[in-house]
Amino acid sequence: MTQHSVQAAGRRPKRARKRDYNAVSPVWNTIFNIVIGLFAFSCVFPFLFVIIISLTDEQTLAMEGFRLFPSEFSFAAYEYIFQSGTELLHSFGLTLLVTVLGTLISLTLVTTYAYALSRRNFEFRGFFSFLAFFTMLFSGGMVPGYIVMTQFLHLQNTIWSLIFPLSLSAFSIIVMRTFYQTTIPDEIIESARIDGASEFRTFVKIVLPISLPGIATIGLFSSLGYWNDWFNALMYYNDPQSTVPLQYLLMKIEKNMDFLTQNAQHLGSFDAAASLPTETVRMAMVVLATLPIVMAYPFFQRYFVQGLTVGSVKG
User: Fold this and answer.
1) In this structure, are residues 239 and 157 in contact, taking their beta carbons and an 8 Å threshold?
2) Were 140 and a residue from 35, 93, 144, 193 both cysteine, which residue would form a disulfide, CB within 3.0 to 4.6 Å?
3) Does residue 213 carry a pLDDT above 80?
4) Who's near 305: CB < 8 A, 6+ residues apart?
5) What is the pLDDT of residue 313?
6) Is 109 helix (H, G, I), strand (E, B) or coil?
7) DSSP designation for 263
8) Cα pseudo-dihedral 109, 168, 219, 214, rounded to 10
């Protein structure tokens, strides 16, 4: 044994220091939290500002303009809207029912349609894919849709006239089909078939639980579409005694208010028109139309998690 090897053997091996590249220094962590917090506040601030304006006195708003801390608050805008009484509550209930029922129907149609398109062994896959994509570029038109809904289906002044036109979205079908193709491995479907599961059972027991993020995404899009829809009520509701959706009712209130303001000279009601909270009512309508659907976001957020299929297939 040489002298060099003896000296090398007598030395204690030094422990290699492992550098943690994933660790973030406290300074950078604080900076990141501040930046993200400012970005989140910039997203929430406009809605908070709208709430403040809706609670501002109309005369104060005309004199001081839009201010974050107005000198005088007032609930006149909300009092003017709630003058409709039970009609507003009925419209809110109708809109909630249409949103829930329409979203469930839309999810059922979209998920089944997209799953069929995602299967490579489906014989008519190309035809139905083209059919869904074609409707994104060209629609049947307003007049044919009105004739089908009123003359053939006889759904005028019914809740189904608010649900069926938005129940099947080609965009949601393509998004969900792509989600199936990129997220669900074919090995999972094949293993279920080997175990003797039918196509329907495979879809319900295996595909749907894995596809919750995609379902939550298109479910949120569908809920927003139903909640914000007013055009279908304008098209298919012509009975004055029928309960209309919330968005359409708020639009009618705004039109009535604008009519009184613009025709105050002919109606001889200058004082009444001057006392109408025009700007604050518009902001209050935004709050009433937006706040309920905002409350639905936390329920969908828990499903926005990716990588649910990681580790599902071994080998």
Assistant:
1) yes
2) 144
3) yes
4) 213
5) 45
6) helix
7) T
8) 70
Q: Which percentage of the chain shows pLDDT scores above 90?
A: 10
Instruction: Give the rounded distance of the alpha carbon of 203 from its chain centre.
Output: 25
Structure tokens at 182: 């990129």
Do residues 296 and 66 touch, judged by C-beta distance below 8 A?
no
Reported for 170-174, long-range contacts at CB under 8 A and 24+ positions apart, including other chains, are 170/132, 170/133, 170/135, 170/136, 171/136, 172/106, 172/110, 172/114, 172/218, 172/221, 172/222, 173/110, 173/113, 173/114, 173/117, 173/132, 174/114, 174/132, 174/133, 174/136
Q: Which two tokens stand for residue 283?
A: 């902001």
For 85-253+283-301, CATH number out of 3.40.50.1820, 3.90.550.10, 1.10.8.60, 1.10.3720.10 equals 1.10.3720.10
Nearest to 159 by CA among 170, 167, 151, 169: 167
**Which pTM was predicted?**
0.76
Q: What is the residue whose two structure tokens read 């869904």?
A: 132
Residues 296/226, Cβ–Cβ less than 8 Å: no
For residue 119, the tally of other CB atoms under 10 A from its CB is 16
Query: Residue 170: which of 204, 221, 120 has the closest Cα?
Result: 221
**119 φψ region: left (φ > 0), alpha (ψ -120 to 50), beta (else):** beta
Beta carbons of 225 and 267 less than 8 angstroms apart: no
DSSP states along 297-312? HHHHHTT----TTTTS
Q: Is the distance from CB of 237 to CB of 157 less than 8 angstroms? A: yes
Backbone angles phi, psi at 85, to 5 degrees: 70, -130
pLDDT tens string 6-16: 454 555 555 54
Average of pLDDT values for 183-205?
85
pLDDT of 98 > 90? The answer is yes
